[in-house]
From TrEMBL:
The gene is hisI. One of its GO terms (biological process) is L-histidine biosynthetic process. It is found in: Cytoplasm. This is Phosphoribosyl-AMP cyclohydrolase. Its cofactor is Mg(2+); Zn(2+). The lineage of its organism: Bacteria, Bacillati, Actinomycetota, Actinomycetes, Kitasatosporales. Mg(2+) binds at residues 95, 97, 99. Zn(2+) binds at residues 96, 112, 119. SUPFAM superfamilies: HisI-like. NCBIfam families: PRK00051.1. Residues 48-120 form the Phosphoribosyl-AMP cyclohydrolase domain. One of its GO terms (cellular component) is cytoplasm. The keyword Metal-binding applies.
Length: 131
């Protein structure tokens, strides 16, 4: 299932249907993006970090599935459309500074493109666990 591209204004900036009150609270990068941390809603496991612009956030809030902006491909992607590893949205919160989103999801299958459950399994830089 492909996601339609957003409409564009004459200045090439995307037009989004994101609630203006929500949009006003977002602090974006120079590229107009906000980092979005995906977390398993029932265990608290951090799954991945993706990027959203206003349109991706709008689609996430209205469809109940995570939509991200791919910085490498310069296009929207809905998590799971290709892999089947769907993220069903349970809640979305904006942090106190307005510069990061926390998206609590019910993850089906792997969250990472490598096939791992989480993107944070590969390189543990420090661990004080006695496991």
């Amino acid at each position: 299932m492909s996601t339609p591209a957003p409409q564009t204004r004459p200045d090439s900036a995307p037009v989004s249907a994101l609630d203006p009150a929500v949009a006003a609270r977002l602090k974006r990068t120079a590229d107009g993006l906000v980092p979005a941390v995906a977390q398993q809603y029932d265990t608290g496991e951090v799954l991945m970090l993706g990027w959203m612009d206003d349109e991706a956030l709008h689609r996430t809030l209205t469809t109940g599935r995570c939509t991200y902006w791919s910085r490498s491909r310069q296009e929207y992607w809905v998590k799971g459309d290709t892999s089947g590893h769907v993220q069903r949205v349970k809640s979305v919160a904006l942090d106190c500074d307005g510069d990061t989103l926390l998206v609590k999801v019910d993850q089906t299958g792997a969250a990472c493109h490598t096939g791992e459950r989480t993107c944070f399994d590969a390189d543990v830089l420090l661990s004080t666990d006695d496991k």
